[in-house]
Write a structure and sequence with these properties.
The structure is a homodimer of 343-residue chains. The first copy, chain A, contains 11 helices and 12 strands. In chain A, helix 1 packs across helix 9 and helix 1 packs parallel to helix 11. The longest helix of chain A is centred in the middle third of the chain and has 16 residues. The two termini of chain A are 23 Å apart. Strand 7 of chain A pairs antiparallel with strand 7 of chain B, so a sheet runs across the interface. Bound molecules: 3-isopropylmalic acid (2 copies).
Chain lengths: 343, 343
């Protein structure tokens, strides 16, 4: 039976993760879960972000379920670089999978887009690009200061994530992959991405392809999100595009994310895209849907696609039954979802 | 009297630029205009993109009015790097000014946003960051290939564009500047931007400030574009965010852009954000509004704010009077705009 590590984290993290675990237990009884105390609270208490011993322990699990880490009192970059990105890189989670659907029952911000019309997934590269941490500065705090950030891209890293995107597209109905980059300005990295994309596309004559510059893709995600099926892109572009995709499908409150090591050599990590929301933490009013959808991605990755499908269907039932404006209770939503999932 | 260089360019460029000139002539008779043949057509005919002699001649003008350059037959990067970016860098156009308004009469894609509610301007850095052209690759077309792109940021370059943004905000009604970056991941460049921003903000106690990560800003531009007044950001983030801002205010068909050297040491350049649209070129149906709004930015920069205001008001009249779905004729729109502007 699967062994998962649970990092509930800060703010609303513990509240929403509790519901995700409830739903996992309902559809796949017997999953063994171990809690790890990481995030802003631990950092403030002990000064530690992610001790090597904890990293080693996490490595022994099949997957990690994360709620949210962070707090305005922690300096920018500490938990991002020291925890979230450290896990992505240490566990070679090179596929950052972010599905976006405009669910029936959810009102998106776009007047012309109806529920059910948007169903896309962004496959974001997770271990390279501008996230490599290659940069520095000179003459800090003088008029001569210069700061650099370097985007590092390897054929190895680019090709494997494109391959994953094509495999996912081949298993979907529309079978289309859109490559997003900025080949007209970032000519070196852009050329590498474009050539790797063409090479993998040649192995998939059944999958349709297109290319868009990132600025155009950002625009079309707003005006015509329906046109996308699978989008593959680099780390930073994926960060931006997935938040746009979340915004047009009802907000990051509903968005799930998986940082996946497809080979299963290291644990993959699943987390809602939203943050720790300290302003509403502890009140039992956070929507756990994104955490529960992240649990569905986890189940799918661990080889339980039917359990995953039941969780996703439960979310569809829950959202279709909501009355706009009626406040929700985190634990009641979790109870309902667990119930729908086993019904 | 002002001397402007006109680069009509490719596709619909000549059609829309003709209307912009018509409107300039109406509000500021006597502007001397010299045409320069640059773009895809010249590249195909002669192999030349931007000869040094032409660059020298352009430098002798007060401003450049550009229609659109580009064609699918030109390899990516050739005209972008060789012409557009070359001009931005050669003429030290460090302020890329991109206003977005949801005009009365225009239906944006967002259900909750009404015309008149959005009025923001993005001040995008134009001479640094990932656009510096610092990058390369090794072991091309082998499994060992690596490609880099480097973002270069100087205190000099960052501070001057932030200073420009604050000056613009101080002259606007809401007096607010939002810095957009990704300080939690791009810690070196992010720190430089944040410190320069704080330093300039201290000189402007009358201007409100906020900071957002680029992914959050992309999302809020979709869900709450009304919240922005002046946004200052780096070159690549600005590229992406301005297309989102255009999308939520009716599309890049209405979006104007100025690449400005504020000191006037070199000519500034003004152009619609849209491309050359080869599919509709030559039919006289392209909307010249973005080109005409770019002409308004040009007039303002050359010290004719009243002429600029008349052009902007003419556009407002034109857009408010349009009936959705009724096809337009490029030259008729230009005639109407020229008429409104002098009425
Ligand atoms: C918190 C931050 C490091 C992270 C990222 O930029 O990847 C977040 O924005 C995300 O999208 O998961
Ligand atoms: C054509 C390209 C070089 C340019 C840019 O990236 O700056 C365009 O997208 C723009 O926004 O003006």
């Amino acid at each position: 039976m699967a062994r998962i590590a649970v990092v509930a984290g800060d703010g609303i993290g513990p509240e929403v993760v509790a519901q995700a675990r409830k739903v996992i237990d309902a559809v796949l009884p017997g999953v063994e879960a171990t809690e790890y105390d990481l995030g802003a609270a631990r950092y403030h208490r002990t000064g530690e972000v992610l001790p090597d011993s904890v990293l080693d322990e996490l490595a022994g699990h099949d997957a990690i379920l994360l709620g949210a880490v962070g707090d305005p009192t922690v300096p920018p970059g500490v938990l991002e670089r020291g925890l979230l990105l450290k896990l992505r890189f240490a566990f070679d989670q090179y596929v950052n999978l972010r599905p976006s659907r405009l669910w029936p029952g959810v009102t998106g911000p776009l007047a012309a887009v109806k529920p059910g019309e948007v169903d896309l997934v962004v496959v974001r590269e997770g271990t390279e690009g501008l996230y490599a941490g290659a940069g520095g500065s000179l003459h800090r705090d003088t008029p001569a200061e210069v700061a650099t950030e370097e985007s590092l891209n390897t054929r190895h890293g680019v090709e494997r994530v494109i391959r994953d995107a094509f495999a996912r597209a081949a298993a979907r109905e529309r079978r289309k992959v859109t490559l997003v980059h900025k080949t007209n300005v970032l000519t070196h990295a852009g050329s590498l991405w474009a050539r790797a994309f063409a090479a993998v596309a040649a192995e998939h004559p059944d999958v349709a392809t297109e290319y868009q510059h990132v600025d155009a893709a950002a625009m079309f995600l707003v005006t015509q999100p329906q046109r996308y099926d699978v989008v593959v892109t680099d780390n930073l572009f994926g960060d931006i595009l997935t938040d746009i995709a979340a915004a047009v499908t009802g907000g990051i409150g509903l968005a799930a994310s998986g940082c996946i090591n497809p080979e299963g050599r290291y644990p993959s990590m699943f987390e809602p895209v939203h943050g720790s929301a300290p302003d509403i933490a502890g009140r039992g009013v956070a929507d756990p849907v994104a955490a529960v959808l992240s649990a569905a991605l986890l189940l799918d990755q661990l080889g339980h696609p039917q359990a995953a499908a039941r969780v996703t269907a439960a979310v569809a039932t829950e959202l279709a039954g909501r009355t706009p404006g009626v406040p929700l209770r985190t634990d009641e939503v979790g109870d309902r979802l667990a119930g729908y999932a086993v019904a």
